[in-house]
Amino acid sequence: MDQRIIGRKEKISLPKLGLSLVWAKVDTGAYTSSLHAEEIREEVVAGKKVLKFQILMPAHNKFTGKTLVFEKYREKKVKNSFGQAEIRYLIETELSLAGEKFIAEFTLSDRSTMKNSILLGRKILRGRFLVDVSKTNLGKPYRSKK
Fold first, then answer.
1. Which of 47, 48, 77, 107 suits 141 as a labelling partner, its CA being 20 to 30 A distant?
2. Which residues contact 16 (CB under 8 A, 6 or more apart)?
3. In angstroms, rounded to a whole number, what is the distance separating the alpha carbons of residues 135 and 112?
């Protein structure tokens, strides 16, 4: 399988979350990908437990304006940037990066003090992408050569 070369920051789309061409930091030091979320809560709707949250995009200065609801989610133990273990909610959603679309896992965390709202970890990158840390936005949509 050919691996596309991407840079240290890339524009991605998360269509199910209403995000199109937003910046994400590629972090080969992180295993799991992370998405900034606020007002994260579990609620019971029609007898079913759901996860509700809002995402703050793109530079932590405005809400997308809607509360997202996920029926399929789980909790995952992760090490934060300080090396401390914590439990986070994990969702799966469609990711579009460098002309490829696939289902990716994201943990939800408060990244309001971080420069980047979205972090792409090794799990998403493995087998799909190589990272050139000297560049940004290399992953423009793929066009096959005929």
1. 107
2. 93, 94
3. 25
pLDDT band of 98, cuts 50, 70, 90: very high
* 49-93 pLDDT, tens digit each: 999 999 865 444 555 567 899 999 999 999 877 888 999 999 999
Reported in sequence order, the residue ranges of the chain that DSSP labels E, i.e. its strands, are: 4-7, 9-14, 19-26, 33-36, 38-45, 48-54, 68-70, 74-79, 85-97, 100-109, 118-120, 129-132
| R_g of the chain computed on alpha carbons | 15
- Total number of domains constituting the chain: 1
Q: Which domain holds residue 13?
A: 4-35+74-132
pLDDT tens per residue, range 31-58:
999 999 989 999 999 999 999 999 865 4
pLDDT value at residue 143: 44
Measured CA to CA in angstroms, residue 26 lies from 18, 66, 67, 102 at distances of 20, 26, 26, 16
Q: What is the CATH number of the domain that holds 100?
A: 2.40.70.10
Contact 126, 6 (CB under 8 A): no
Residue 2 three-state SS:
coil
